[in-house]
Amino acid sequence: MSDSECITSCTRVPRYITKNDVRTLFEEISLLNEIDGFSKESNKAYLEFETRLDIDFPEKYIEDMVFMQPNLVEPGMKVISRQLTIPTGRIDLLLENEAGEIVILEIKKGFPRDDVVAQVLSYKGDIEDRYPDKNVKTAILCEDCSNRVKNAAKSADMIIYKYGAYFQISA
């Protein structure tokens, strides 16, 4: 491999598995059943496949899931309010963790823009005024985010939670 091919290979954007890729994998797995000696019982062959699927969840669907099951974010998490309108905007979910801290959760579909950290921090002052005796934490729930968002969130002591769908085949 030439130097330029190597650099191109190392710097390309990762590709998520598509529905067509999954279909191809299923076809390949079904072919294994035709191979002599492939049997889970005899332990002559074993296949396990786990990957991240590229599924386009609407933001409201993600919010609905977290609203109904806040422990998905963190064990012991409880919902205080949903779509709470405050002077600086509207908070997707206002939660309380097991330690009694208020958690402002902003949900973003896919990869959030860089300004999401400023958006969530702007909510924090209003919530601190509303709950003066509570520690207020900030968090983002997204599929993934850029290094800029990760660094800004880290500097602001903001938690980044990630969502996704996983598909597993085992025999």
Automatic annotation (TrEMBL):
<dbReference type="InterPro" id="IPR002793">
    <property type="entry name" value="Endonuclease_NucS"/>
</dbReference>
<dbReference type="InterPro" id="IPR048301">
    <property type="entry name" value="NucS_C"/>
</dbReference>
<feature type="domain" description="Endonuclease NucS C-terminal">
    <location>
        <begin position="59"/>
        <end position="147"/>
    </location>
</feature>
<dbReference type="InterPro" id="IPR011856">
    <property type="entry name" value="tRNA_endonuc-like_dom_sf"/>
</dbReference>
<dbReference type="Pfam" id="PF01939">
    <property type="entry name" value="NucS_C"/>
</dbReference>
<dbReference type="GO" id="GO:0004519">
    <property type="term" value="F:endonuclease activity"/>
</dbReference>
<dbReference type="GO" id="GO:0003677">
    <property type="term" value="F:DNA binding"/>
</dbReference>
<keyword id="KW-0540">Nuclease</keyword>
<keyword id="KW-0238">DNA-binding</keyword>
<keyword id="KW-0378">Hydrolase</keyword>
<protein>
    <submittedName>
        <fullName>Endonuclease NucS</fullName>
    </submittedName>
</protein>
<keyword id="KW-0255">Endonuclease</keyword>
